[in-house]
Request: fold
Amino acid sequence: MILLDTCAIIWDALEVSRLSNKAVSAIEKAGQQNALIISDKEETA
Reply:
C-alpha cells in the first residue's frame, strides 16, 4: 500500500519525469494491486 500526496499523483499523471524510476515502479505496482491511497487534505495553520 502506498500513500501519495497530491503533488505525487499529479506528477505521475502529468510530469512523470519528476518522479524517480523506483517511485514510478512502486506506484504502478500498487495501482495494479488496488493499493493506492491518495491524500488530498489541505493543511491549514
